[in-house]
TrEMBL record:
Organism, scientific name: Russula ochroleuca
Database matches in PANTHER family: CHITIN DEACETYLASE-LIKE 4, PTHR45985
Keywords, ordered alphabetically: Membrane, Signal, Transmembrane, Transmembrane helix
Region forming the signal peptide: 1-17
Top-level taxon of the source organism: Eukaryota
A biological process term (GO) from this entry: carbohydrate metabolic process
Transmembrane regions: 492-510
Region feature (Disordered): 396-415
Transmembrane helix found in the keyword field: yes
Name recorded for this polypeptide: Chitin deacetylase
Amino acid sequence: MLSLTLLCLLIPALSFAQDGSISGPTSSSDAAGYSCNASACKLPKCNCASTSPPGGLDPADVPQFLVYTADDAVQSYTIDSVNQFLAQRMNPNGCTPRMTYYTSLNYTNYTLVTDWFVAGNEIADHTMTHVGSPPNDEIDGNLIALNALAGIPLSSIIGFRAPYLNYTADTLSHLAASGFTYDSSATSSIPVTENGTDAFWPYTLDYGMANDCLNVDGLCKGKPKLPGFWEVPMYAMFDSLGIDGPHLMDPWLDPADGSSTVDDNATLTYMQNTFLAHYNGNRQPFGLYTHPIHTATTYPGVSASNSTIDMINSFLDWAQEHEGVWIVSTEQLLAWVQNPVPLSELDSFTPLKCSVPEINQSICDGIPDNEQGLPDLCDFPDFPFYTCYGCPVEEPSPDNPNPPQQNASNGQEPRYRLPANCSTPWWDPVKGTCLCSGASCQYHDISRPIGPNGANLTGGDTDRASSGIPSPTASFLSFNGNGASASFPAGTWPAIMVGFFGIVGGLYLIRI
Ligand SMILES: *[C@@H]1O[C@H](CO)[C@@H](O)[C@H](O)[C@H]1NC(C)=O
Ligand SMILES: *[C@@H]1O[C@H](CO)[C@@H](O)[C@H](O)[C@H]1NC(C)=O
Ligand SMILES: *[C@@H]1O[C@H](CO)[C@@H](O)[C@H](O)[C@H]1NC(C)=O
Ligand SMILES: *[C@@H]1O[C@H](CO)[C@@H](O)[C@H](O)[C@H]1NC(C)=O
Ligand SMILES: *[C@@H]1O[C@H](CO)[C@@H](O)[C@H](O)[C@H]1NC(C)=O
Ligand SMILES: *[C@@H]1O[C@H](CO)[C@@H](O)[C@H](O)[C@H]1NC(C)=O
Ligand SMILES: *[C@@H]1O[C@H](CO)[C@@H](O)[C@H](O)[C@H]1NC(C)=O
Ligand SMILES: *[C@@H]1O[C@H](CO)[C@@H](O)[C@H](O)[C@H]1NC(C)=O
Ligand SMILES: *[C@@H]1O[C@H](CO)[C@@H](O)[C@H](O)[C@H]1NC(C)=O
Ligand SMILES: *[C@@H]1O[C@H](CO)[C@@H](O)[C@H](O)[C@H]1NC(C)=O
Ligand SMILES: *[C@@H]1O[C@H](CO)[C@@H](O)[C@H](O)[C@H]1NC(C)=O
Ligand SMILES: [Zn+2]
């Protein structure tokens, strides 16, 4: 049970969930003043900002990506919240969808970051203490602390989103200089159906930015030039007011169509209409950009609306009935944009596959079944957290993102942090040994070439009977929670998959 004191201390995490709203266009063709030399700018290192799919593909051969992201602190409540929408689903290749968690560190429970990463999700940077116009130490410190205390390889943290979507040209330059691959803070604010839409596919900044030109100083007209650094725009949705009715993050918290009250039916309608505009057009990615706390059902003392949760699941069920729809992390989207293969070849596209490491030892490695009892409790008064990698003497901060380890009171030896030449699930932080090295590590590929969405990608025998994955089916299956557990990779999910549909109370969360 949580003490009342702890509960009060957790509540501040809610106050972070206020980023991301726009009220009208944040760009225009004039303000963008964008021009790109398409004969010099070639994939995979360069891509011009364009509303057409990369690689010159015909939209009919292009997957409709549905990018799913979450922002802010990682806690059991927020993981439960994401799981109620994704864990029961499958992409056309049979894999559980992955998503991107833009993680800030205040109130983050580090072992859950480790678990979420090892389960295949992308962990990205959202500053340490959640500040807009972020100073460099907030950005770099997040990387360092996630590496030290959550065991995320530095090479795997490739993306950034600014808190409150508040960034500057300097933020982008710093990200590029620090070796990040992409930023995803800019907004696409004009419907895909309008002339002059700013719904560009992800692009590199070789020729400057083409989004947010009216919103952020020092962008566009060729600036900032950051060759090889990507912008992945956040695509707004639009209600019946069209360009004057944009919705960006947590759209289910917004009243729509000029109304003053939230109506889940109205939200569902414009989400579907915007999705169809993308799907029937150039198939620019569609995004669900969420603060999971707003749909949390296990957060002590607060509870989301059942009707909103059901609406979001209905939307996802409906979207998945369309052929060629893939729910992905930002990292997966970008991997495809860099190497755009047609829909018919997606079944063999490695970044969309799901393989789980076969590790069967009692080590603290992000696999819940393995790590039982092993994480250390770091009992800091404002937010106690767990880590596999040894408690620091003080909480990480931008001034000191990687404090020295505590000498454990129980006489336990210091833990070993993840080295650069071992990957998270194979590293034993207690013994300081890597159970595997190089490409020879044993992984178990659980993807399959045919999906449940009528995608019929390749056909043929998949020989996955022993993996616990259901046989391919030719027609769509409803994922509405029924029979879902059959598809979970053994040993990977169960411990973090608590609280499914466990909805209590009726307090509606208002936007704060
Ligand atoms: C565009 O790039 C090509 C190939 O690098 C080059 O030959 C051409 O001069 C460039 N055009 C302009 C307008 O810069
Ligand atoms: C933190 O993580 C530990 C270990 O995984 C878990 O037992 C605990 O419930 C988590 N607490 C929160 C608030 O996330
Ligand atoms: C959270 O961030 C604030 C700065 O905004 C900092 O003063 C505080 O110590 C942080 N708390 C935790 C738990 O990291
Ligand atoms: C962005 O963040 C900075 C620093 O926190 C703040 O001064 C500024 O007002 C913010 N800008 C916007 C548009 O929110
Ligand atoms: C876009 O421009 C074209 C040609 O100028 C015009 O025919 C079309 O009606 C315009 N569409 C919209 C939605 O404004
Ligand atoms: C939403 O739509 C459903 C089904 O069409 C209907 O039963 C329900 O009353 C509607 N709710 C509102 C608030 O309009
Ligand atoms: C993992 O351990 C379980 C029980 O200890 C055993 O049944 C299973 O065969 C082991 N799997 C592997 C791949 O070693
Ligand atoms: C941990 O213990 C060692 C040896 O007893 C001591 O030298 C060191 O200063 C201690 N570190 C901390 C952070 O207390
Ligand atoms: C990793 O690097 C360390 C030195 O930094 C070396 O001692 C160790 O053998 C390497 N491990 C593997 C598995 O290559
Ligand atoms: C899947 O099969 C159906 C029926 O044969 C066909 O209409 C549809 O075009 C196929 N879809 C793909 C993506 O090949
Ligand atoms: C929400 O749904 C859950 C599970 O279906 C149910 O137990 C709970 O009573 C519902 N809450 C409200 C306010 O309807
Ligand atoms: Zn945030």
